[in-house]
Amino acid sequence: MVDHLANTEINSQRIATVESCFGASGQPLAIPGRVLLGEGILTKECRKKAKPRIFFLFNDILVYGSIVINRRKYSSQHIIPLDEVTLETLPDTLQMKNRWMIKTAKKSFVVSAASLTERKEWISHLEECIRHLLSKMGQQPPTEHAAPWIPDKATDICMRCTQTKFSTLTRRHHCRKCGFVVCGDCSRQRFLMPRLSPKPLRVCNLCYKQLVAAKKETEEQSKTAHSPLAGYEPSSGDDSDRSDEDRVEQWSAEAEFYTSNTAWSSFHS
Q1: pLDDT digits (tens, 9 = 90+) for 167-204
Q2: In Å, what is the CA distance from 140 to each residue of 68, 124, 194?
Q3: How far apart are CA 34 and CA 228, in angstroms?
Q4: Distance between CA atoms of 111 and 134, rounded to whole angstroms?
Q5: Cα–Cα distance for residue pair 185/201, rounded to 1 Å
Q6: Residue 88: helix, strand or coil by DSSP?
Q7: What is the pTM of this model?
Q8: What residues have CB less than 8 Å from 12, skipping those under 6 apart?
């Protein structure tokens, strides 16, 4: 179907209509080979509350935005490359049914369809487009994704200290690493996560410790990898006889050293 529609007038008109609905605030969407496969309204779980959003599925991108006047005017255009997307089906909640998560390295969020059939159709078409695009690009599905933000109304207390109660004066914050709703005292730290933003982002205290530890470990591994003596244990600098005696006790009494028939020169060949 994609190849059949790629260079047709009807496809060009459909894409032009979408561009027109977003107006000057949206980015151009028409490029050679791009096909608009479908569209529909899904409910997106946002920070404050769930809101309807218009979604457009192309063969290489997913576009969504806010509805000002349905089929006439949209705003806040977002474009997600499909090669960065993975999907996860989620169980129903009391508030929302037919849910699934759209995950990327920069942003992950939950949407829901009006019916189970509609959800199956969306997921089926998305997975087909993603599979075809990854095969065409010779890439594997992404393995890392950003944590979705927990909605504000999901908790009245900090999800880390479980002590601070939120109010008009005590604001909610979101950790950019785990997505938890946390208080100010539990999220005073900032950490640079390049895949999310060029600037340091707010993270909770627990995630900050984990991120710092992971960064330190990566730096140490990098130093070891570039060391000319990589793989060797550093000397303690202690040449005392006592240390030698302690080491000898670890070896078997029958062991004979320097009795190999192998010539030393062979180690340098």
Answers
A1: 999 999 999 999 999 999 999 999 999 988 999 999 99
A2: 37, 19, 21
A3: 50
A4: 23
A5: 15
A6: strand
A7: 0.77
A8: 30
